[in-house]
Amino acid sequence: MDLNTVEDVIRRPSARPGSDWHAGDAWLAGGTWLFSEPQPTLRRLVDLTALGWPTLVPTDEGLEIGATCTIRELHEFTPPEDWSAGSLLRTSCDAFLASFKVWNAATVGGNICMSLPAGPMITMSVALEATYRLWATDGTERTVAAANFVGGDHLNALGPGEVLRSIHIPAAALRKSYAHRRFTLTKLGRSTIFMVGTRTPGTDDLTLSITAATAYPIVLRFDSAPDADTVRDRIDAIPADVWFADPNGTPEHRRHLARHYAEELRAELGGAR
User: In this predicted structure, what is the pLDDT of residue 31?
Assistant: First the structure.
């Protein structure tokens, strides 16, 4: 879609963009949402792709993902063999309701900053205990846990002009055992729920993350193996207004799926240690 209110496009911003940010600006990465509908308040686009941020940097500490890393690049990444949860990266890419053309343009950071309940990069980063590095317009930076970043449908922790620079996934999380469940109304449809369970090797802990079914990510942590009633009680304690409603499912349907999948994940991961 043509953005007929845009007067300027900054193709080569400074290495640390943001100092001249003003109302009407928008960061441009893949642009798959920016160019999908009218943006009447925009006056200028600042292209982040020209900055050449490293896309995927595996280290002993974990995986650093540049915010401008495309979904295609993440999908093709081969994680180290000891990262048992590394396959969740590809699984999350497969959850996109998008064609290969979108995969080649859409970015990990863009999907996170859109902050849609069904954003699969949010699912991935929350389940793998990621942190986000944010750059502010005054030159400072801060780190926010992925689980605390999204506050609702299209709502997140970003301040005016703040940009997501990178996503860090710790190696300890990538070495966990994991299982997932995802429900869609159609084979290639948008997620009604995307739920991930993880367990630390050698322990009987359990972490369940619920996304797509709720307006923002819900993380349920258990220090020791919970029984079925305990897990169900934690799910039932989620406030009614947190369950998401859209054409893909009612809040009641999503809560039912969460209960069902939680028990499957609890049973599956109970022997994986």
Answer: 85
